[in-house]
Amino acid sequence: MNPTLADFGKDPWWIILIKVVAVFVFLVVMTLFTIWYERRVVARMQVRPGPNRNGPFGLLQSLADGLKLAFKEDIMPLKADKVVFFLAPVISTVCAFTAFAIIPFGPFVSMFGVRTPLQVTDIPVAVLLVLATSGIGIYGIVLSGWSSGSTYPLLGGLRSSAQMISYEVALGLSIVAVFMTANTMSTSEIVSKQAEQWYLIALLPSFIIYAISAVGETNRAPFDLPEAESELVGGFHTEYSSLKFALFFLAEYINMVTVSALATTLFLGGWQAPWPITQLGPWVNQGWWPLLWFTVKVLILLFVFVWLRGTLPRLRYDQFMRFGWKVLIPANLVWILVLAGVRTLQRENLTTGQTLVWIGVALAVVIVAAALWPSKKDQPKQTVEEQVASRPEGSFPLPPMDLQIPVSPRAKRITADRETV
Question: What share of the chain is helix, strand, coil (3-state, %, to 5)?
């Protein structure tokens, strides 16, 4: 039997304490493993060995790096707000750990003779708790940039706030389709509703938008604009060192694990075994085995994070913001409307012909709207002089219009060769 909301809140205090400590240990171990995992995968993509000295296959390299960071000198900038400067990484780390409290790892298990669900807790609005903690965690980044008393961290913190507003909206809208389909926000019940079919199949557009938004929400490449070492040095954590820097590093990787675990819960059946394994018998979804399926799914999603980092270049800031507001959010809204329409038609018990008529009408409306939508190609393109003349007074200064970039010797040679031919 799968856990329900009524099964939570009945555990003795020491079982709850064991669960909290187990989740903490799981996240720390996953962080150490993910750092090693990322370095090895990226090294394989770049045809080099990666960490392979400390421990078997270099598995202890992450632990060595963590100990090195913890014992380094802690530098405090002179102009920093010392209280906020100290609290900022703590806020990000605590929020990262808190979000994992409602993630289901498995069904009922026997823990020291007590039958309990393999989940810390669950509430009727469990998924909203993850969104709330992720939103508050961004304040740690914003405050770290502001409290450092430096320009580059401040710019990185401002970028992160804009990034949060943009991609938090898209990420939240992508989950709405899951709520509409499952009729609940409880993570344990959402997993139970996917016993027959994962929502990845029925809600594929939502999963794609969620995956893209999660990459932007966790500040990972190609959306790692709050850091952007080529522009802002280290971004919001430029002035941080020692254990405080390690806390930001820990929060980033825990957020990666959290969004991967939430994607597993909402779209990939949670802790339930995939289809070929379920044919082995009901035992694959009982006891402690579901913890293995859950961890494997999370690792597969983490591989996608690493794959993107090793493959794609960083986007420009304007491209990033335009993609969030003009592509992801409108596509999400259209998909929610389509899903709401389909569910309404299902409730009306319409015939197949009537359903096709309604679908045809909706497609016709979309096609007509797309045809009548004004295009930029229809607008006359202004010359450089007209663009300069239309700029308001007091705007940013422009270089002189007669400024010419010298032609490179290679370009001169190519031009001469063409003229000779």
Answer: 70, 5, 30
d(CA 251, CA 95) in angstroms, rounded, equals 8
DSSP of 265-304: HHHS-TTSPPHHHHTT-GGGGSTTHHHHHHHHHHHHHHHH
Question: How far, rounded to the nearest angstrom, does the alpha carbon of residue 388 sit from its chain's CA centroid?
Answer: 40
Count Cα atoms within 13 angstroms, Cβ side, for 274: 12
- What is the average pLDDT across 34-40? 91
Count of residues in the chain = 421
Q: Choose between 388 and 28: higher pLDDT.
A: 28
Q: Which residues contact 98 (CB under 8 A, 6 or more apart)?
A: 129, 133
Distance CA 272, CA 378 (A): 53
Position 400 scores a pLDDT of 57
Cα–Cα dist 315/226, whole Å: 12
| CA 37 – CA 375 distance, rounded (Å) | 46
Q: Which tokens go with 287?
A: 């006891």
pLDDT at 399: 58
pLDDT at 297: 94
Backbone angles phi, psi at 172, to 5 degrees: -65, -40
Helix/strand/coil for 110: strand
Query: What type of residue is 60?
Result: L
What residue type is assigned to position 344 of the chain? Answer: T
Domain positions in the chain are 5-358
- The two structure tokens encoding residue 99: 């979000």
| Top-confidence range, 159-163, 390-394, 408-412 | 159-163
